[in-house]
Amino acid sequence: MDNYNQVLSVLILLTSFMLMANKRIKSYIGTFRLQSALIALTAGIMGIRAAMAEGSIDVLVVSIIIIALKVIYIPNLLHKTFSGVEYKVEKDFFLNIPLLILICCGLVVFSYFSVSRVAGGSDGIMNAEVVNSISLVLIGLFFMISRRKAIGQIVGFLVIENGIFITAMFSTNGMPFIVDIGVFIDIITAVLIMGIIVFKINEKFDSIDINKLKNLRG
Amino acid sequence: MVIPAVGTLLGVSIILFVSAAAAALVFSHWQKLCNTASNILCMAASVSGIWAAIRHLLAGGEKVVILSVGITVPIISFDLAFDRLSAFFVLGLCILVFCVSIYSIGYVSHFYGKRNVGLFQLLFSTFILSMFFVLTSSNAVFFYIAWEVMALLSYFLVVFESEHSEKQKAGMVYIIMTHIGTAFLMIAFMMMYSYTKSFDLYGDSSAIPQPARNVMFILFLIGFGVKAGVIPLHIWLPYAHPAAPGNVSALMSGIMIKTAVYGLLRFVLVYLGVENTWWGMTLLVLGMISAVLGVAYAFVEVNIKKLLAYSSIENIGIIFIGLGIAFIAFSKGNRTIGALALCASLFHTFNHTLFKGGLFLGAGSIQHATHTLDMEKLGGLIKKMPVTAVFMLGGSLAISSVVPFNGFASEWLTLQSLFGMIGKGQAVLNIAAIVAVAALAIAGALAAASFVKLFGISFLGLGRSEHSEHAKEVSPVMYTGMGILIIPCLVLGIFPSLFLKLTDGLVTELAGQSVTGNLGGPLLLARYEAAPGGNSISPLQVAAVLLILFLLALTVIRLVGGRYLERRYGTWDCGFEALNSRMQYTATGFSKPIQIVFRILFRPSRELKVGGDHQYHPKSMEYTVSTEPIFEKYIYAPVVKMVTDLSRRMKFAVQTGSVHRYLIYIFVAVLALMLYNRIA
Amino acid sequence: MNSLTYNILQLTVMILVAPLINGIIRKVKAFTQKRKGAPLLQMYFDLFKLIKKNTVVSETSSWIFKAAPYVVITTALGAGLMVPSVTLVAPSGFMGDIILLVYLLALGRFFMMLAGLDTGSTFGGMGSSREAMISALMEPSILITLFTAGLAAGTTSIGGIMTKVKEMPAPLTQPVFIMFFLATLIIIIAETSRIPVDDPSTHLELTMVHEAMILEYSGRHLAMMELGASVKQLVFITLLVNICLPLDQLITISGIGAIVLSLLLYLVKVSAAAVLIAIIEVNTVKFRFFSVPNLAALSFILAFIGFLEYFVLWR
After folding, report:
1. Phi and psi based region of residue B483 (left: phi greater than 0; alpha: psi -120 to 50; beta: remaining)
2. Helix (H, G, I), strand (E, B), or coil: what is residue B606?
3. What H or E segment, with its residue span, contains residue B78?
4. Percent of chain B having pLDDT more than 90?
5. Yes or no, beta carbons of C313 and A132 under 8 Å apart
6. Spatial CA neighbour of B351 closest among B536, B507, B491, B535
7. For A197, phi and psi rounded to 5 degrees?
8. Which residue of B209, B540, B559, C293 is surrounded by the most CB atoms within 10 Å?
């Protein structure tokens, strides 16, 4: 069972496809929770390995932080923010869902082609996990584009962050601890700020459709 | 008994075709005699052609020169030669011509007294002859002339019933498109001559440098692509094929578009030789696009012949997918897969000739019997035209490539060659191959759906109009001609090795490797270098097992359930007791879900007009749906507009009407030529 | 085992187990709804009763209507013969091939759609039309899914694939087979008219697809249609369990005992799959018809990603 990394990275990628196919705000958050849990699992396995091999518990700690932060705290926070805002099925995507999913599939292929050109790509360093995680970043960004409501942008942002995190983890087996902590603090701040802004947008426009922000132009 | 040589047989065939044309002229005052005599001569000619082709495919190998007439003009010569590649396509041509001629004896009868039968038969037989010359000429200039004549004659046949303005438009689109294609071919032939100083098709192309080869490939691809109707060069096909009379559209769809496949094989594979992978990749991608879009457009069509025409685009797509894989494999030096894919695409070419020819003849029969091709006006024809219905069903099953039919055998080979193509460490190719698998799958499913629609709406259920109520079975000659094309579909599906054996020599010649190898019995086999065992299925075994299971089901049901007792009763009408034909699903309704799902492709628009004072008390209702032809709107319309604008501007700038101006043009041209002569 | 005996065994297993799967699914659904539900063997009783009944045939219909049930049952059983249930004893030179399987089932579907149109009823046409759409959307993922499994095993023969996976260490730990599993699950749901796509237990105009096509059938014809559908369902389930969960290599004994053991293992596997399907069915609501493409796209992507992971991204 030495290919668990690839299996987990595929499953993580899969959650991003699920996210793309989701239509409800609640399911966005649920899927994000699932994705983070899988990432925490990956980090946990890596951490246990590292702890057994070198005795360092950095990655393990990171994994626990992910559980606390991305599996529990941020999703709950989002729930709380959006329970007051709106409960609607999002239906105005600029393309229909099958097409969005097919484009995501194209993104995976694209990230393969771009990564395979990176130096060292051909001599075995480039691997499936990295491609999957870079696709995750791209899909996160695409998700932000495809959704109109502000929640889409927040979840997309978090997915991008997830993608960056696992890319780093798969390519280096864990970044320096201090970097990870820095990133986590960053995203908490970002999510908090975004939550407040969403609240304000809703207050101002009675909706969180970000297209309404166009009205702010003079 | 002296067995005549292949050359003699072909000579006889040509003479008989010529005499068919002559008979049409001579007897043009006696319509019935003219029709019968001319068609029987065509049949005789094609029998001779079939004989020659089969003999040459099985035994021959060497090129046979049928005729060689040097003309004083040095580069042009009237050369006809016959090798295995020609033989294969001539076989398809002659089989189709044989059946179409039988059919025509009955079909042309509705021209009696209305149209000039002599003229029609003259055009018909010379059209066949021109295709014959295209397939056998060994000189590029002569090929070009035959190609042009073929295009012109088919144009005349398309506009034969030209009192409808839409048929004139169809003819116009056709003649313009085909001429654009021919122009590309002409440039390619000129390039060919400028490098090799010869127009010989069997000549040596090694003098052509690499960049020129690439350019020539593109020229050939566009030139032949137009004739093949490959998307995005297809726009003429769905207009021209339906506009022609039934027997002519069978010829056009059955074999004329295949001359493009012949051209690609002859000029690209045999003459130039495939060296670049991107050639094959281009074909593969074009094939995928044509297969999926072609059948998607077919599915939403309500006119039987248009549906069949779009389905031809799909099948050309499948053939191109096979060719693409073959070209990729050849450029990579993988002979095994190349041979397999080539064989698959040749097989599909032949199959398509059979079933599409048959189906177009069937469509002609429907038109003959009901005077309409609009599915919304048909229905219940299976009771009126039982024999035609059986053959139509057979053709539909074959073209949907369901199991014991030939369409399946060729699709199996194509999929197997894709299967063999995929291997680790070649990313682009793998992705292209798996996408091609998906394309074939969706094309297959949509093709089945299209033909369920064609058969189900027009033959089953209740008649939807007067047209179908008064239909009568067509004359035996007509359904015989159709049947002779459809029955081999089943035979070849169960015994595909018959075909593989027949073309073994050809595939070996082109690919340098035989696919049949140690093929035993009715086994269909795909072998790979990586897995020498390969994959095999036995269509005969499958057919036998299905038959046994069928009998088993019959017996068990009989034993358990006792005697079959049936009560005929009206269809469940939800208690209305007034079920009528207007309550049936229509052809438009049938394809509506797909139209909605693929709305990006079809851009459907609908309009509901309610007549009367109030929308809740309608006096009349009018509902129109239309789809937007995206290729015409977004590719062709801008080009046409540009050309028209340019010509209009030219009219005032260049074409002034002043004689002096024209003389200046001539003067400048002469000076420029002399200057060029000095420099070059 | 010689191939005739094997085929008879296979056919018997297919015919006898197929209705049982429906029974299990219904039973599990009933349990989750706090009902007792019909007996596990209800479908057998239904089939017997139907076969014995007289048939009513629509006046509008032609011979296609009467031929279709035979074609459907024949192709379903033919497909059943291709998918070895007891892989331990399947002879090597078996006729099963993934491409053949797909196009054989297409024959059955072709006739079923025709039969829907033959009666001239609106329901039949509606069912056929919807079936055409679902099949067109699902076909690419079916073929790619099976192709990927075939490529991973190096053969298109179904028996060959099942033999090959037995040599692999736990297929379900490999991305390609995980994707195969998930994609096949979606395919089973769509192809066998299960809930998010179609509802086998209602006759409501708005929702029915498969039931609409066979609405006019009665008596023995209906029995054949029903049995055909359930055999087709078993075919896909067998593909799923025998490729993803090959357990036969664990059997160490030989002789008749091994066959019985293998058969029992097979029964356990398919029952587990049936329970899984039932749980999915209970926990989802039926999709709007035009949401089905989402599901199809998802299964296509699953198959495609599985392929990518194995053939493009593999180290």
Report:
1. alpha
2. strand
3. strand B77-82
4. 44
5. yes
6. B491
7. -65, -40
8. C293
Cβ–Cβ below 8 Å for B590 and C57: no
Asked if B313 and B237 count as a contact pair (C-beta separation under 8 A), the reply is: yes
Neighbouring CB atoms inside 10 A of C264's CB total: 11
User: Helices C219-244 and B539-561 sit at what angle, rounded to 10 degrees?
Assistant: 130
Across the range B380-390, mean pLDDT stands at 92
Asked whether the beta carbons of B539 and B493 are under 8 A apart, the reply is: yes
SS3 content of chain C, % helix, strand, coil (to 5): 75, 0, 25
Q: Provide the number of CB pairs (under 8 Å) joining chain A to chain B.
A: 7
Nearest of A161, A150, A153 to residue A36 by alpha carbon: A161
pLDDT tens per residue, range B645-677:
998 888 777 777 778 888 888 889 999 998 988
C296 and A98: CB-CB below 8 Å? yes
* Residue B83 three-state SS: coil
Kindly give, in sequence order, each residue whose CB lies less than 8 Å from that of residue B277, ignoring residues fewer than 6 positions away.
Answer: B328, B331, B332
Name the residue among C155, C310, C103 with its Cα closest to residue B420: C155
Q: Which positions in chain B touch C139 (Cβ < 8 Å)? A: 441-442, 444-445
Cβ pair B427:A99 closer than 8 A = no
Q: What is the ipTM of this complex?
A: 0.94
Q: In C, residues 117-146, which contact B (CB 8 Å cutoff)? A: 117-126, 128-130, 132-133, 135-144
**What confidence tens digit (pLDDT) does each residue in A33-83 have?**
999 999 999 888 888 888 888 777 888 888 888 888 889 988 888 888 777
pLDDT above 70 (res C315):
no
Q: Phi and psi dihedrals of C34, rounded to 5? A: 60, 35
The answer to whether the beta carbons of residues A84 and A206 sit under 8 Å apart is no
pLDDT surpassing 50 at residue B178: yes
Q: How many residues does chain B have?
A: 680
**Mean pLDDT (whole number) for B185-212:** 87
Q: Report yes or no on whether pTM surpasses 0.80.
A: yes
Provide the chain C residues 63-92 that lie in CB contact (below 8 A) with chain B.
63-64, 70, 73-75, 77-78, 81
